[in-house]
Amino acid sequence: MSNDEAVRKAWQTNLDVNLELVRHLTPEMLSAQTPGGGFSVAQHLAHIVASVKYWGMALEKGAFAGLADLYDPDAEEFVAENDREKIETVLKETYECARAAAERHPRGSAELPHADASAFLLHMMVHDAHHRGQVLLALKVSGHPLPAEQALWAPWRE
After folding, report:
1. DSSP state of 30
2. What's domain 3-153's superfamily in CATH?
3. Per residue in 103-124, pLDDT tens?
């Protein structure tokens, strides 16, 4: 398996873990907030997707232009989508678009500030892991149950 293939396999695993987390959430959990006035769980998820879309547009603008957002980018306040099914759908569509764009442009683009498309995907996976940690913290301090550890870690071990 080449490094690029390994990164794309990890990209799918990362998406699977994100989806496990989203499927665990209830409507009440989506409003749980990171301590200190930070993002809500829904805002973290909207930010995760928006970041992939933002950097993906530097790789291949046209591919990402028609994708849905999980917030209104024109609104003055950052109000995130709270419909779990829509969050899941937009997450899947955005991540599939990023994977496909990375396959079409393995060497990146002049606008992408990453060494290549694999570096872009790796950056997004690290970013996702940071925000998954923030989501888990928001859930924990709000008294909500966390997803089973097996659900979040087993996909990485398989």
Report:
1. H
2. dinb family like domain (1.20.120.450)
3. 999 999 989 999 999 999 999 9
